[in-house]
């Protein structure tokens, strides 16, 4: 009886969760070629590479694992899909997708970008402004990282902590969570790889701003510091832009009471200015808050093509994202590996058989063996 009640409760709780989740965008490419109605390729440059729908050489499920695959080597790619615009202000934002470098990526992007609703999909390119860039980027042995780049006031800010990405040929699930309390989390294959505070893990020196104390406290001892204005800009000689923020400008020369400044006695060259709380950050944070999220896309370069992108998700619900990850990547990872193992074994067997044939042929007739090998080499190249 108690057991049944627990079960019932669990089912209800789960249904409620899913019911509460807001899914802004979800794409599994399950309706054949109709994805072309939802995804707009950029035509900004005629040399942009083409995408096709494919589950690749090995997969867990031939149909369900179909995703956008890059098809041409040494190309830029640019494609995007729209959804009704939303703001993540005060809400969690989860960005998730799967990526599979079955060609064994040597150099190229495997990341996604989230764009403002104003994106012009037809001209999408390197210069198109984005809100978020997230996912793996590989180039040789030097670059194997997961980017988490956030736009703030038209500047892009990269995470300071370096996050290593997967470099094998299998499908991997990448998840980025941005929460309203300014915490973030990066997961790969459902495992937390990095987490922390957006305040501390991004290059935010340009966002740092001193905070003024409330007026009531102005005249308590220790609130005022002496500053000697230099004649030109009115900027105190000891003004430290790093700690004090940007110098607000010459307005400070206007006596007698300016914001946080007052002249000391009759000596107009000596000003007092309110002590700053130099280590404080903006309290009203808008980094990681995006007003008008309206598109998701791929805008990247690949030396060797073949990467498959699938199972895109934007939601405000971490648990929904987790269950969607389990239902997609979770189902495919095992069978995909098994299929790859079988194909690899078959290849090894075939190679061994060919070698044996060659040896047999070579034992009797050297020139013939050379010819066969030469012939096969050329057939291979034509493929
Ligand atoms: C479109 O292509 C041109 C020429 O390749 C390039 O200069 C421009 O930056 C591209 N536009 C965007 C939005 O990236």
UniProtKB/TrEMBL annotation:
Task: Spell out the disulfide connections.
Answer: 107-139
Q: Where are the transmembrane segments?
A: none
PROSITE patterns to which the protein is assigned, alphabetical: CALRETICULIN_1, CALRETICULIN_2
Q: Where in the cell is it found?
A: Endoplasmic reticulum lumen
How is this protein annotated for GO cellular component? endoplasmic reticulum lumen; endoplasmic reticulum membrane; nuclear envelope
Q: What is the residue range of the signal peptide feature?
A: 1-21
> What InterPro entries would the database entry show?
Calret/calnex, Calret/calnex_CS, Calreticulin/calnexin_P_dom_sf, ConA-like_dom_sf
Q: How does it assemble?
A: Component of an EIF2 complex at least composed of CELF1/CUGBP1, CALR, CALR3, EIF2S1, EIF2S2, HSP90B1 and HSPA5.
Q: What is this protein called?
A: Calreticulin-3
């Amino acid at each position: 009886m108690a057991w049944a009640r627990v079960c019932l409760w669990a089912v209800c709780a789960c249904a409620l969760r899913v019911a509460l989740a807001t899914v802004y965008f979800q794409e599994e490419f399950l309706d054949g070629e109709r994805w072309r109605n939802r995804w707009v390729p950029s035509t900004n440059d005629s040399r942009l590479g083409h995408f096709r729908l494919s589950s690749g050489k090995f997969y867990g499920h031939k149909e369900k694992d179909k995703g956008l695959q890059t098809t041409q080597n040494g190309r830029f790619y640019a494609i995007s899909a729209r959804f009704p615009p939303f703001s993540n202000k005060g809400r969690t934002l989860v960005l998730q997708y799967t990526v599979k470098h079955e060609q064994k990526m040597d150099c190229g992007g495997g990341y996604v970008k989230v764009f403002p609703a104003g994106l012009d999909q037809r001209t999408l390119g390197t210069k198109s402004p984005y809100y978020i860039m997230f996912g793996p980027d590989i180039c040789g042995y030097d670059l194997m990282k997961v980017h988490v780049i956030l736009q703030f006031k038209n500047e892009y800010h990269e995470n300071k902590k370096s996050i290593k990405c997967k470099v094998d040929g299998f499908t991997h699930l990448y998840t980025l969570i941005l929460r309203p309390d300014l915490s973030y989390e990066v997961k790969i294959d459902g495992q937390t790889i990095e987490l922390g505070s957006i305040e501390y893990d991004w290059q935010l020196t340009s966002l740092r701003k001193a905070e003024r104390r409330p007026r009531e406290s102005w005249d308590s001892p220790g609130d005022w510091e002496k500053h000697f204005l230099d004649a030109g800009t009115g900027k105190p000689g000891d003004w430290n832009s790093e700690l004090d923020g940007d110098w607000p400008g010459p307005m400070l020369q206007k006596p007698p009471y300016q914001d946080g400044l007052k002249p000391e006695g009759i000596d107009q060259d000596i000003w007092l200015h309110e002590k700053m709380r130099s280590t404080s950050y903006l309290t009203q944070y808008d980094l990681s808050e995006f007003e008008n999220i309206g598109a998701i896309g791929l805008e990247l370069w690949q030396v060797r093509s073949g990467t498959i992108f699938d199972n895109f998700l934007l939601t405000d619900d971490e648990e929904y994202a987790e269950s969607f990850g389990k239902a997609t990547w979770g189902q495919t990872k095992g069978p995909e590996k098994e299929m790859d193992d079988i194909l690899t074994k078959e290849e090894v067997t075939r190679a061994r058989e060919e070698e044996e044939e060659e040896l047999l042929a070579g034992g009797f007739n050297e020139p013939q063996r050379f010819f066969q090998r030469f012939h096969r080499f050329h057939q291979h190249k034509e493929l």
